[in-house]
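Annotated sample (chain length 82).
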Amino acid sequence: MHEHGLVDRMMQSALAEAEQRGAALRAVHVRLGALASLGEARLRADFAHVLEHLGRSDIALHVEYAPERPSGLEIVGIDVVA
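Output written by the structure step:
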C-alpha cells in the first residue's frame, strides 16, 4: 500500500506541474534507482489504478532503470500539450 501512495503523490505532482504550465499532462517519465521499493510491474499496476481513480486513460508512463543510482522512484520529466 505504501507504494500506491508514492505513485499517487507522483501523479499529483506531475498533474500540478502540467497545470502550472497551463497544459494537459500526456506522459510521466520516471527513473527506478537502487532504492526503489517497487518494480516495473507493480509501478504500472499502481499507475493504472491511480489513472482509473482520476478518470484518466490518456497519460503514458515511461520507465527508466538506473540501478547504479542510490535513489528510489524519481520523476525525471513530463510531457504536456497546450
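Annotation: The helical segments are 2-20, 40-54.
Annotation: The CA atoms of residues 24 and 78 lie 10 Å apart.
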